[in-house]
Design a protein that fits this description.
With 299 residues, the protein is of the alpha+beta class. The protein has 3 helices and 14 strands. The protein has helices at residues 3-26, 39-48, 180-194; strands spanning 65-72, 75-90, 93-104, 114-122, 128-137, 140-149, 154-161, 164-172, 199-207, 210-225, 234-243, 253-260, 267-274, 277-287. A 14-stranded antiparallel beta sheet has the order 8-7-6-5-4-3-2-1-14-13-12-11-10-9.
Length: 299
């Protein structure tokens, strides 16, 4: 393959990889409990509310599948599917097993992206305790994993290619962190506790070995949101925020999201700025027992 073509292929793959991260960040609409900006305050309030003691009332529901379609400019470039696999135990900690599958559409020039993300999130707090991802690279796979040992105050991150370890990194932990997947569900749970109050919040997040945060202003406005999954607008809350780290292909800065204005707190749409413009991600399909989407009352 000519050098220029290889460079273009890598750039497009990075864009789509970034879209996955952008989705996880941008579609989340967080509605908090009080006008606070401290992560620990939010966590304590959620635990006091009974969230950690009442799984039956959680937005995290075994078997739920949410599928999103990502568009760049006028092109539909791929889909991301979030799946709650169920309750389990990881390293003696009750946890939720979460999964996300990312696939580019066939026929997109120079793009053949397939990735699988798995996260074990503490069932009590929804903080990440283990995360891994496998991404197709040519004829092989790049595998990354990270164990977050909060009791030891450290994380062990490892990357391997085609079964051969290529990098090991150990770094300190000063607090509990979300990762991409647990962030998605943590904020949905926090939104339920928040009950529609407009609030600013800073959420700690770890991406590979980078420890950073996402700053959110949530529940800015209730408004209708049009998505692919339904032929009518849904009632939603709008939010906006800022990514305080640089992700794939330079993703950083401002983003906007919309979440269903009901107890399921389903992310509906996300708009994220990228180095070459804007990526839009919309909910395409929902599998959640008993969920009735909130139809917008706006004319």
């Amino acid at each position: 393959m000519p050098l220029n073509k290889r460079k273009m292929t890598k750039k497009i793959i990075k864009i789509f990889s970034m879209v996955a991260v952008g989705l996880v960040v941008s579609v989340l609409v967080l509605r908090s409990v009080y006008a606070v900006s401290l992560f620990h305050g939010l966590t304590n309030e959620m635990e006091n509310s009974g969230w950690s003691r009442a799984d039956s009332n959680s937005v995290v529901r075994t078997g739920e599948e949410l599928t999103y379609e990502a568009s760049y400019l006028f092109f539909k470039i791929g889909a991301v599917r979030f799946h709650v696999l169920g309750r389990t135990v990881y390293d003696s900690i009750p946890a939720y097993e979460l999964r996300a599958d990312i696939d580019s559409y066939s026929g997109i020039p120079f793009v053949d992206l397939h990735a699988i993300y798995i996260t074990y999130a503490d069932a009590k707090t929804l903080m990440c305790i283990y995360t891994s991802n496998s991404q197709k690279e040519g004829d092989g796979w790049l595998y990354t994993s990270c164990n977050l040992h909060y009791a030891k105050g450290k994380a062990d991150w490892q990357q391997s290619k085609n079964g051969v370890v290529v990098k090991n990194v150990e770094y300190p932990l000063d607090r509990s962190y979300t990762d991409g997947l647990s962030f998605f569900y943590y904020l949905r749970e926090a939104s339920k506790v928040a009950d529609g109050r407009k609030t600013k919040l800073t959420i700690p997040i770890v991406v590979d070995t980078v420890r950073s945060s996402v700053v959110l202003t949530i529940n800015e406005k209730k408004e209708p949101c049009d998505i692919k999954a339904y032929d009518f607008p849904l009632e939603s809350y709008r939010m906006s925020g800022h990514i305080n780290f640089t992700g794939f292909f330079g993703v950083t800065g401002g983003f906007t999201g919309w979440m269903s204005a009901d107890s399921a707190e389903v992310p509906l749409r996300g708009d994220v700025n990228v180095i070459l413009g804007s990526v839009v991600v919309k909910l395409k399909d929902v599998k959640r027992d008993g969920w009735i989407p909130p139809r917008s009352k706006s004319k």
